[in-house]
Specification:
8-stranded mixed β-sheet; 6PGD_dom2; 304 residues; N-(1-d-carboxylethyl)-l-norvaline Dehydrogenase, domain 2; Rossmann fold; oxidoreductase activity; 14 helices; NAD(P)-bd_dom_sf; NAD(P)-dependent oxidoreductase; oxidoreductase; 11% strand; alpha/beta; 48% helix; elongated
Length: 304
């Protein structure tokens, strides 16, 4: 797009930014922006949480209205989207002409509804999903998924890139949240799996400090497992192909049975291993025992 005719010209010089929500993530973003020379106005429901970033140079707004009116770019880092309505609902008259970037976690449908709500008050809305913990904000490893108007992302790309590499998914405001929730589904189940495995090993006297290095090295190999036999992970899945030459549903299902039996004998919680076992049993019942373990996706897509 020709910048001369772009209603959202890209800004490379420091601009004023408002950050609402000062949990660990909001504080990390504020400090990163301040370090790059951006004036930052902050507001938090618990005012004392602003003390640290104010000492670092941020301006503490007395009210949400004052915070919103301080900047054209307003970044929200809250518990969920309802918190946005609770905070901004009474100051919606101040939103016109501003860009709201909500980096809070919630459902894709709620992000779409929020985009409509913001547009109704004259604001441009971008959904964001931050894919690193707070200590990694501003590092080379940080990245953030965005969806919504691409012009708004381009207008504020310079400031947003400071937080993490922007990865734009498309105009649908629900896409960034969908990617975020999908990634967290992998992350949270992996964490639960690590703790379940650590509990198993602890029952026979193996300490966590001994167990976790072994378990984490296995987790690191998942990418190699997914790439085995194909150059692009997921290509066979997209084609509906589940070749069982490397591993089968029956083989993996037997392993899931053994994990459930072992966990039962140890008196551990069975919620996670039984959920995994159910995926393989469903695929076997549907006649796919000889297919690759990826066949379990059918039951996930179409639960009984």
């Amino acid at each position: 797009m020709d910048e001369q005719h772009n209603p959202f010209p890209r800004q490379d010089s420091p601009v004023t930014v408002t950050v609402i929500g000062l949990g660990p993530m909001g504080q990390a973003m504020t400090r990163t922006l301040l370090a790059a020379g951006h004036p930052v106005t902050v507001w938090n429901r618990t005012a004392g949480r602003a003390d640290g970033v104010v000492a670092d140079g941020a301006t503490h707004a007395a009210t949400p209205a004052e915070a919103v009116e301080a900047s054209d770019l307003v970044i929200l880092s809250l518990t969920d989207y309802q918190a946005m309505y609770d905070i901004l609902g009474s100051v919606s008259g101040s939103l016109a002409g501003r860009t709201l970037i909500n980096l809070s976690s919630d459902t894709p449908d709620r992000t779409r509804a929020a985009s409509t709500w913001a547009a109704g008050h004259g604001a441009t809305f971008l959904t964001g999903g931050v894919m690193v913990p707070a200590p990694m904000i501003g590092t080379e490893a940080a990245y953030v998924y965005y969806s919504g108007p691409d012009e708004a992302l381009e207008r504020h790309r310079a400031a947003l890139t400071l937080l993490g590499t922007p990865k734009y998914l498309g105009e649908d405001p629900g896409l960034a949240q969908m990617m975020y929730q999908a990634a967290l589904a992998v992350f949270l189940t992996s964490l639960s799996g690590l703790m379940h495995a650590t509990a198993m090993l602890g029952s026979v006297g193996i300490k966590a400090r001994e167990a976790l290095p072994e378990l984490l090295s296995l987790a690191d190999s998942i990418g190699a497992i997914m790439r085995a036999g194909e150059e692009t992970p997921g290509a066979a899945l997209d084609a509906g192909e589940h070749p069982g030459d490397l591993s089968t549903v029956t083989m993996m299902g037997a392993t899931s049975d053994h994990i459930v039996d072992t966990s039962t004998s140890l008196g551990l919680d069975l919620a996670l291993p039984e959920a995994v076992q159910a995926h393989y049993r469903r695929a076997i019942e549907d006649g796919h025992g000889g297919d690759n373990w990826t066949r379990i996706i059918d039951g996930i897509r179409d639960p009984r």
